[in-house]
Design goal:
This protein is mostly helical and 401 residues long. The protein has 16 helices and no strands. The chain has one domain: Up-down Bundle (Growth Hormone, Chain: A), CATH 1.20.1250.
Length: 401
C-alpha cells in the first residue's frame, strides 16, 4: 500500500495548472481583486462542503469519496480549458471546490487507518512525510511538463487539458485500494443522522482544547503559505523582465522558463524536506518544539520578504517566498501527527476535513482583501500580512503555555 499511497500523491500533484494559474487568469484579463474573488468563491464552497464531505466519506466510503472528488476535478479542468467569460470561470471554480472538499482529509484518514491495522501508528510522521515527498516529486515533474507545454504553445489553456490525464489515472489507482479502507459502511443513514453526527463531531472538536489550538495553527500557517505561493507567480514574472540572458525569448516564454525553473526546484526541495520532517522533529526534541521553531523561522522569512518587496529587491523577496513554501512541507507532516495524537481515529476524515476547512475559510476571507491591496500597493502587503499573523499566533501560544 505504500506504493499505491505514494502513487496517489504523485498523480494528484500533476497539477500542470498550478505554476501558471494566476498568470492564466491575468492572461484572461482579470485583476488581482477579481482573482481573489474567484479564489474566495471556490473556498466558500469548500467551506460549505468540507466537513459534510468528510462525514459522507466516513459514513459511505472513503474510496468512493476520492473517486467522486477526482471526477469533479476533471469537470473543472474541462470548463477552465473551454471558458473565458467570468461566470464560466466561477462554474469551473465550483467543481474544483467539490473536488477539494471530497479529497482533503479523506486520504490521510485512509493512511492512518492502514497504519493502525499494521500496528505501525508510531511511524505516522515518517510514513506521511514519505508519501508527501512523492507528492512533491510529482509536482516537480508536472512543472517540467507544464513549462514545456507553455513554451511550445505560448497558451495557458494547454495546461488544463493536460491535467485531465493523471487525474483519470488516479481514479484507476483508487480502484486497486482494498475495500475495507472505505471504512464501515452505514446503510439506512438519513440526512438527520448525518447532521447529528456532524454537530457531535464539531462540538467534540471545539471542546478539545489541544485540537482547537492546532486548528488555529493550521489555519494560519497553511493559509499564509497558500497565499504566498499564489503571489510567487507574478513576482517571478516580474523578475523575469529584468534578466538580460533571457532577452532572446518572448515575454511569455521568458516568464515560463523562470516560473518553471523555480517551481521545479521548489518541489524537489520540498520533497526532500517532507521526507526528512520526522528527523527535524526528533532533533528539535519532539513535535511541539519543532513546530515552535518553524513558526519563528517562518516569521523571519515573511519579514525579510516584506522588506525586500518594499525596497524593490524582487529576487531576495522571491527567495523568502520559496523558503516559506518549503518550510510548510516540513511543518505539515508534523502537524498531521500532532492532530492524530489528540483526536478520535474513528472520525479521522471528518476531523481532518475540519482542519482543511479552517485553512480554506482563512484564504476565503483574506484572498480578495490581499488582492485589492496588491492592486493598490504592490506585493509587499502579502508578506507583511503573513508576518504579522504568524507573530500573533506564536504569541498566543506562549500565553496559553
Amino acid at each position: 500500500m505504500l506504493t499505491r499511497f505514494s502513487l496517489y500523491g504523485f498523480l494528484k500533484n500533476q497539477k500542470y495548472y498550478e505554476p501558471f494559474l494566476i498568470l492564466a487568469f491575468i492572461d484572461k484579463g482579470l485583476s488581482f481583486f477579481t482573482i481573489g474573488l474567484l479564489i474566495g468563491f471556490r473556498l466558500v464552497w469548500v467551506n460549505i462542503l468540507e466537513v459534510p464531505s468528510g462525514l459522507i466519506a466516513d459514513t459511505f466510503g472513503r474510496r468512493r469519496s476520492m473517486i467522486a472528488s477526482f471526477t469533479a476535478y476533471i469537470v473543472s479542468f474541462i470548463i477552465f480549458a473551454l471558458s473565458r467569460p467570468l461566470w464560466t470561470l466561477f462554474a469551473a471554480m465550483f467543481f474544483f471546490a467539490v473536488g477539494e472538499a471530497f479529497r482533503t482529509g479523506t486520504h490521510k484518514a485512509m493512511i492512518f487507518d492502514w497504519l493502525a491495522s499494521e500496528g505501525r501508528t508510531g511511524e505516522k510522521t515518517l510514513f506521511y512525510g514519505y508519501t508527501r515527498s512523492w507528492s512533491q516529486i510529482g509536482a516537480a515533474a508536472s512543472v517540467v511538463l507544464a513549462t514545456a507545454a507553455v513554451i511550445i504553445t505560448e497558451n495557458y489553456t494547454t495546461i488544463f487539458w493536460l491535467s485531465v490525464l493523471p487525474y483519470l489515472a488516479n481514479i484507476i489507482n483508487f480502484l486497486g485500494y482494498p475495500s475495507w479502507l472505505d471504512g464501515s459502511y452505514h446503510s439506512g443513514i438519513t440526512l438527520a443522522d448525518l447532521w447529528r453526527r456532524l454537530i457531535s463531531t464539531l462540538s467534540d472538536s471545539m471542546k478539545n482544547i489541544p485540537l482547537r489550538r492546532l486548528f488555529l495553527e493550521s489555519m494560519t500557517y497553511k493559509g499564509n503559505a497558500t497565499l504566498t505561493k499564489d503571489y510567487l507567480q507574478p513576482l517571478l514574472k516580474q523578475t523575469a523582465i529584468a534578466l538580460p540572458f533571457l532577452a532572446v525569448l518572448s515575454y511569455e516564454r521568458r516568464s515560463a522558463v523562470i516560473v518553471g525553473a523555480v517551481f521545479f526546484m521548489l518541489y524537489l526541495i520540498s520533497s526532500f524536506a517532507s521526507r526528512k520532517s520526522h528527523r527535524f522533529a526528533d532533533r528539535s526534541g519532539g513535535s511541539e518544539p519543532a513546530a515552535r521553531l518553524l513558526w519563528m523561522i517562518t516569521i523571519l522569512c515573511f519579514l525579510g520578504a516584506a522588506g525586500g518587496l518594499w525596497r524593490g529587491w524582487d529576487i531576495a523577496a522571491a527567495a523568502c517566498f520559496v523558503f516559506i513554501v518549503i518550510l510548510q512541507n516540513i511543518w505539515r507532516p508534523i502537524l498531521m501527527s500532532r492532530i492524530d495524537d489528540v483526536s478520535d481515529a474513528e472520525m479521522g476524515a471528518t476531523i481532518l476535513s475540519i482542519d482543511s476547512q479552517a485553512g480554506s475559510f482563512y484564504v476565503m476571507i483574506f484572498a480578495p482583501l490581499l488582492g485589492l491591496a496588491v492592486d493598490k500597493a504592490g506585493l509587499w502587503p502579502v508578506a507583511a500580512f503573513g508576518g504579522v499573523t504568524a507573530i500573533l499566533v506564536l504569541i498566543s501560544g506562549k500565553k496559553k503555555n
